[in-house]
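Collaborator request, handled under Task 6.
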Amino acid sequence: MDVKELVRKNKTLVEYKEKCINAYTELLNIGEELHKLEENDWIKLREKGVNDAINFFEESGFTTLSNDNKYVFTLFNTIIKYFYDGEDEMIMFPIEVQPNQIFDTVQIRHSSEYDSMLYWKYNIALNGNHVYKENYEDTFNNCDDLNELQKSYSKLNENIENYKNTIKNISNVKYIYSLYKQDIECDTFKELFENHIIG
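Structure tokens returned to the collaborator:
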């Protein structure tokens, strides 16, 4: 290898390190923008989770008592306790049905068909080691494998485009009722309650 080739190779290496750092930074910024859009939905979904339960039980003849966002629905000797116990994207409502000894957790989340829109398409790794937001600048700067940097840069750009597309189409994301840590997907609270909680 002649000296010009060596200088060109080193220059290309430095350029790809900078490209990767800039692309990772852009991805983090776009991710933050997406997160803010989702936060607006989470507030509405928490309200929906409460209102759908109240409407369902009251239409079924239950009386409703509420205290500090905790709800108790009663009809004869059937008592159902329901309250919000989540955080941000974890929209969860523990539910208890007595005297039947049924305990579960209702979750409102996006339908699994939208996973590819809301998560990175590719994890970013250099030589098998994941790159994290806490260390991405050092990780890219310490990498001297041009091929790894080029692959990472390509994956970062695909993640960026995926998130940009998600932001444009965020209103299309469908949210469903489910049970925590289960693959159940229901369109309504009624369907979840009757078919999977007491069904």
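The cover message to the collaborator said: "The chain is about 50% helix and 20% strand. Residues 75 and 152 are 59 Å apart (CA to CA). Please let us know whether this matches your experimental observations."
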